[in-house]
Amino acid sequence: MADVTIYEHPLSPYAQKCKIALREKGVAFAAKLPDSIGTGLAGGEFRDASPRIEVPALIHGDVTIFESTVILEYIEETWPDPALLLKEPAARAHARMLEEMMDTHYEAITWALGEIHFFKRATGAAADRLTAAAAEQLAQAHAWLEKHLGDNQWFGGRTIGYADCAIAPLVNGAAGFDLGPKPGTPLGQWLVRANARPSIEETQTEAVASLSDMAQVGDLISTGQFKRQYRDHRLEWMVRSGGLDIVVDGIKNDTIRFVWPFA
């Protein structure tokens, strides 16, 4: 039995990057979906491990860790072979910088698309307007990523690395809304290579399989059974992209939550 457990949802890009890293390193793990995920009411071992009540959370023996970046660094340090970070300090900083940009600016866009198209926070003209804003921002993000990819096969150089683990789930998420990189572009070619990696292919297959459960989540929001978390970069995206009314309605109807108090 694996002595590593990761609490996750297959669609979470934060959980996906950790699973990809574990698979690249050949570390066996058990993936668990927290009870009552999305309600803010999850309990038990998961709540003890993740005071934010968000995935992922990793349990390794007596060690419990939340926050995906901390988990990813723990994986790299605990199982250093094969290395996902290069030895040079500048290269390591570059990989972490890319991860940070994806986790904040990029994730906010794909998360907002989920709010619109899965959770039905906006419909009609409002949904079209917000989707258009997301499409424009993703195109800018893809141009930025291509600049950092350069002529390399991977964001870390010649082999898959730390940044690729963080970037692939989110770019795949954008592609799921038909807003991924254009085929044949450097980033589009990188995505094809990434999805051919067994670690990413398996993780992406799990994500796609879970999409069937998303058909009913709009009803769960409207009936108050789901409370989506609006934290920092996500809240900022809604405000600056024209979705402030979604935030106000969510607070009024008690269908969004913030990270406080700690569990």
UniProtKB/TrEMBL annotation:
Keywords: Transferase. Residues 2-83 form the GST N-terminal domain. Signal peptide: none annotated. One of its GO terms (molecular function) is transferase activity. Coiled coil: none annotated. It holds the Pfam family GST_C_2. InterPro entries: Glutathione-S-Trfase_C-like (IPR010987), Glutathione-S-Trfase_C_sf (IPR036282), Glutathione_S-Trfase (IPR040079), Glutathione_S-Trfase_N (IPR004045), GST_Omega/HSP26 (IPR050983), Thioredoxin-like_sf (IPR036249). Residues 88-217 form the GST C-terminal domain. It comes from the Bacteria. PANTHER family: GLUTATHIONE S-TRANSFERASE OMEGA, PTHR43968. This is Glutathione S-transferase family protein. It comes from Candidatus Phaeomarinibacter ectocarpi.
